[in-house]
Amino acid sequence: MRQESTFKRLWGFANLAEAGSFSKAAQRMGISQPALSYHISKLEEQLSAKLFERSATGVIITPEGRTALALAREVLDALASLESLSTRTETGMLDEIRLGASPTLGPYILPKVLQKLHELFPALRVNLQDAAPSVLLEGLLSGRHDIVFAQLPLRSDKIEVERLFREPLKLVLPESHPLAERTEIVDNDLKGQQVLSLSNAFTLHAQLSSLCDEVGAALRADYEGTSLDALRNMTAIEMGVTFLPALYVHSEIASSESNVVVRPFRNDRFTRSIGLARRKSSGRNAVLSQLSEIIRNVVRADYAGIVTLEGQ
Q: What is the pLDDT of residues 174-190, one digit of tens each?
């Protein structure tokens, strides 16, 4: 039996039980009395039970009908909930999204992004978890995250990636370092330098390792920072030099007293790419699709000149 026919029969059954007459129920449903009578007859045949006693003044529900009515209402309520969920999904009205973000990125831009997201979807709960990009990718593939916000590349044939912006990596030096007197640092200046980095769970580690090989610097293997703050502090006590993302510098160094010096490198053309990733199989819900545009709008409004939008 077609599900659509079953729904019409249950809908007619519930309306007839409430209205108490075929004429009132048919008028309420916007169908003819013969059509309603047909639906009730077929439902009684399907259930092998008499649901109503017919009389000249209307109908009286039978004991079997009362039992069936309670179950029918549960089914109709469940179908209504499913239809509501479908509408909410199409319009973006989800209850929750699970967002994974890199700790080298999220704290310095996400507060403003989440504020804008809340303005658009006030009932939405955002479950936010910080982790290194390699851990975020694993979580995305396993379903722990609906979407992740991190440095690219994130490599898997099961995900869809959207590039959002490029962020300069600033050279950070101890105040006493000879290069601190320069206003611009070039490749040859880094030859022989000890460079501090995060662990290889972070995409930034591979990027700095490649740079060191290119310019003749040495990536320190005896120390791997656990955070950007740790890299800044280790640089301050002259353990080496490091590269920190421009959003971090803008948030944590430029506006505060610091015992490190920040310099552009390669005229700020040494950058990392930032984007969003989702599973290809998850579809494109309105909230998740709009998140990228919210991030772009925040960048335009608050970080123009610090990072550069891409992928448009």
A: 999 999 999 889 999 99
Which tokens hold the place of 240?
Answer: 């080496």
Dihedral angle, C-alpha 14, 15, 21, 26, nearest 10 °: -140
CA dist., res. 169 & res. 166, Å (int): 10
Omega prior to 111 cis, within 30 of 0: no
Cα–Cα distance between 49 and 179 in angstroms, integer?
Answer: 91
* Host H or E run for residue 75: helix 63-91
pTM: 0.72
Residues 127, 82: Cα–Cα separation, whole Å: 23
Which secondary-structure segment (H or E) carries 170?
strand 159-174
The pLDDT value recorded for residue 87 is 47
pLDDT at 138 (0 to 100): 93
Bridge partners of 151? Answer: 274
CA distance 153 to 155: 6
Rounded Cα gap, residues 188 and 40, in angstroms: 87
Contact 52, 61 (CB under 8 A): yes
| In the predicted structure, residue 85 carries a pLDDT above the cut 70 | no
Asked whether 106 and 149 are in contact (CB, 8 A), the reply is yes
